[in-house]
Q: What sequence folds into this?
């Protein structure tokens, strides 16, 4: 008898999944036309923002951590769907940085700089993660890489100032 119920619930679950996702086209994209990778990225951002903006300031650290873990899972699903999804890698890096997992943050920011070499902010964030890991030479190198991606004189000057600060505070 229990086996029949399990099979019935399994069948009903599959039917609901097929109706919900198959007929609406949600596997290829949600009802508003975004892809499944973008859907997971957006869900990840919701969890991240709730943890960072709502829960952390209220010292609800356990709840914030749960939201960060959910955000990580969503960003990883987005990346599993589309390994070259720059925004999902950037958002995943941001969550890892907030969680003080600087090694994983650095890995994700490095991936962003490889996928989008013109993203100067990600070089700077990668450099910050490297400084947290006491990898000062790597931090300086990433700022040099950032300088190579821009012709903006004021930005280059700021990057040089960051390099000087790292050199002084090793």
A:
């Amino acid at each position: 008898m229990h086996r029949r119920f399990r099979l019935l619930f399994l069948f009903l679950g599959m039917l609901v999944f097929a109706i919900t996702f198959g007929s609406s086209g949600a596997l290829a994209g949600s009802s508003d036309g975004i892809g499944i990778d973008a859907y997971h990225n957006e869900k990840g951002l919701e969890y991240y923002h709730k943890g960072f903006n709502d829960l952390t300031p209220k010292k609800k650290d356990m709840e914030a951590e749960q939201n960060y873990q959910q955000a990580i899972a969503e960003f990883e699903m987005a990346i599993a769907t589309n390994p070259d999804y720059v925004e999902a890698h950037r958002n995943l890096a941001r969550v890892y940085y907030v969680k003080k997992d600087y090694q994983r943050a650095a890995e994700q920011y490095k991936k962003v700089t490889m996928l989008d070499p013109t993203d100067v902010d990600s070089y700077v964030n990668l450099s910050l993660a490297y400084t947290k890991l006491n990898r000062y030479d790597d931090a300086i190198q990433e700022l040099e890489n950032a300088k190579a991606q821009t012709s903006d004189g004021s930005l280059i000057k700021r990057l040089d100032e960051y390099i000087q600060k790292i050199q002084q505070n090793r």
Notes: Residues 2-22 form the longest helix (21 residues). Confidence is low (pLDDT under 50) at residues 5-31. The chain has two domains: 30-99, 104-170. Helices lie at 2-22, 36-55, 61-81, 86-98, 102-115, 120-132, 136-147, 153-168.
